[in-house]
Design brief:
single chain, mainly alpha, 2 domains
């Protein structure tokens, strides 16, 4: 008995590990192509739903799809309403997994589990070829998943196939609506414990196919697993940003509405599922005889897993069709549930990385891309405090601006350090050649952006020395420094635009190069003018020295800024 229990737990572990390995391999193979597909296919509600279906079906992970959705929302590339539509599609796409599981049960003498061992040999060959390593990981995960599922089915039969267990489960099914709620709770708990609604669905298939529970209670377990998976995402979003919370709440409300509606119309829903199953040539599981403690008719055993997959699909399709017209209302509800906390609280913390788990392969770099865009915007805001420090008319005004410059320097240091830690963790996973190029790009960019934070503090120190020595800048000097700041501002605009543009869409960085050239030309003109003014003694030499130090600091900032755009372009070429 102990060996059988350990075998059952081992088969469950094999199933979960295989699921994770298969999903990870698919995500690594998808890489930027999946991200690009999502970016281009989310301009209409229908395309959003279709995108959610296709992406989730391909990568076999609604969690990974949700992470990408949240990333696009946070970046402003995808509206919350569109994100909700993608989630609706993802809910339909995740039912493909249930259909694959149904195939593993097979019918007659064949099932997918039979080819699991031969697939392992294919996976081994692929994993030893660098080009096909990710494919090998996917195939190995696929094989382990179905080998684990087959072992789980066989072992559970040995453990549960006795009169006492059947009688106990039958007794739980005899309390009407109370039994439905009880099995719903069981489905939700299994999903929460195993962190996988797919696993809960597989267990449900095992129980119903072997006759331990009637199809009605299997329906309740599937409804519970749909609720359980949204609880998991909401727990993960508890420490995330506002957009992540809203997206998770929308997922929960979507599934909650579907479950409540199904419970209200439970019998008509079961009838619809039965009719749909019959239309595909399978026996109707709703009208089939189920004698408590006696199991099911042999002809139903092979068809019941398909019936579970069908009810899972029907549930999500109907819920999507009913709610798709109410997406604007859902947006208002989740916005009310998760209000903005104010920009300042969001400004000085990492928004997209450092929370939750690090995704697999190249997909983990999507959040890093969004974070580096936000990092660039933060450095750009620092320019406002540089202007304030230069234009301050009192020492108190200058010190207030200088305090901000010092604070921003500390913030950029912290962001660079945390960012580098994240990239270090990402590189521990398998990355494509393009992924490694992106990592190198990010390392260089965060170094340049951190240097921009240092530049702000440097400007503050120069202006502080000018105040200490009583060297007040003339109105003409301030006007020219402000024009220099305008040129740097234009360079920042070009940099932020290039950072935010998907690499595949970035044709050139002419905007950044023109902005940097304008800074250099103006610096050269001011340098020549300064030498002439020193000869004419137009202002004290010390004041002119501080003035040119500021001009050179702006020019140096221009160098850091152009380096960022060049890094992006280098990654594109790589």
């Amino acid at each position: 008995m102990i060996l059988q229990i350990l075998t059952l737990l081992g088969s469950l572990a094999m199933f979960l590990y295989g699921m994770s390995l298969m999903s990870g391999g698919l995500q690594k193979m998808a890489g930027n192509r999946m991200r690009t597909f999502m970016a281009k296919m989310t301009n209409t509600t229908f395309k959003c739903i279709l995108t959610g279906i296709v992406v989730t079906a391909m990568i076999q992970s609604s969690t990974a799809t949700t992470l990408m959705i949240v990333s696009f929302v946070n970046a402003g590339l995808l509206a919350l309403g569109s994100a909700i539509a993608v989630i609706m599609g993802a809910n339909i796409g995740t039912t493909v997994t249930a259909w694959i599981f149904a195939l593993s049960f097979g019918g007659g003498s064949w099932s997918l589990g039979m080819i699991a061992i031969p697939l392992m040999f294919v996976a081994f060959l692929c994993s030893n070829i660098k080009r096909y390593k990710n494919l090998g990981e996917f195939i190995m995960g696929f094989a382990l998943l179905f080998l684990g599922l087959t072992t789980l089915k066989e072992t559970s039969t040995l453990l549960l196939d006795n009169e006492g267990v059947r009688t106990f489960l039958a007794s739980l099914s005899g309390h009407g609506f109370g039994s439905i709620l009880l099995f719903m709770l069981a489905g939700a708990i299994i999903t929460l414990m195993l962190q996988s609604s797919a696993t809960a669905t597989a267990i449900t298939m095992v129980l119903v196919a072997q006759g331990y529970i009637p199809f009605t209670m299997a329906t309740a377990m599937v409804l519970g697993s749909n609720l359980g998976t949204t609880v998991t995402s909401n727990i993960a979003a508890a420490v995330a940003n506002v957009s992540a919370k809203r997206t998770a709440r929308a997922h929960f409300l979507f599934n909650l509405f579907g479950v409540i509606l199904t419970l209200i119309f439970f019998k008509p829903f079961l009838k619809l599922v039965g009719i749909t199953v019959e239309a595909f040539g399978f026996p109707n599981p709703v009208t089939a005889d189920f004698t408590p403690g006696a199991g099911i008719a042999p002809e139903l055993e092979a068809s019941l897993p398909y019936a579970v997959a069908m009810l899972h699909t029907v549930f999500n399709v109907i819920t999507t069709l009913l709610l798709v017209a109410f997406i604007p209302q859902l947006v208002k509800i989740v916005t009310w549930m998760v209000p903005n906390k104010g920009e300042e609280k969001e400004t000085y913390r990492l928004k997209y990385i450092g929370v939750g788990t690090i995704g697999a392969g190249d997909l983990a770099l999507n959040s890093a891309k969004l974070e580096v865009v936000e990092f660039g915007k933060l450095c750009h805001r620092d320019l406002g405090y540089i202007r304030a420090a230069i234009n301050a008319t009192t020492r108190a005004d200058f010190e207030a601006a200088d305090e901000k410059l010092i604070h921003y320097e500390e913030v950029t240091d912290n962001i660079e350090r945390e960012f580098a830690t994240y990239l270090s963790e990402v590189t521990k996973n398998e990355l494509s050649r393009g992924g490694m190029a992106r990592v190198r790009e990010f390392y260089r960019i965060i170094g340049e952006l951190e240097s921009l934070g240092d530049s702000g503090e440097t400007v503050g120190k120069i202006v502080a020395r000018a105040w200490d020595h009583g060297g007040q800048f003339t109105d003409d000097m301030k006007a020219k420094l402000n024009h220099m700041a305008d040129l740097v501002d234009a360079a920042y605009e070009a940099m932020c635009k290039n950072l935010a543009t998907p690499v595949i869409e970035l044709e050139n960085i002419d905007n950044a190069e023109e902005a940097e050239e304008a800074i250099n030309d103006y610096r050269n003109a001011l340098r020549e003018e300064h030498l002439s003014n020193i000869e004419k003694a137009s202002y004290p030499y010390e004041t002119g020295s501080f003035y040119m130090d500021l001009v050179n600091s702006f020019e140096k900032m221009g160098d850091f800024i152009i380096n960022v755009s060049q890094s992006v372009m280098s990654a594109k070429e790589a």
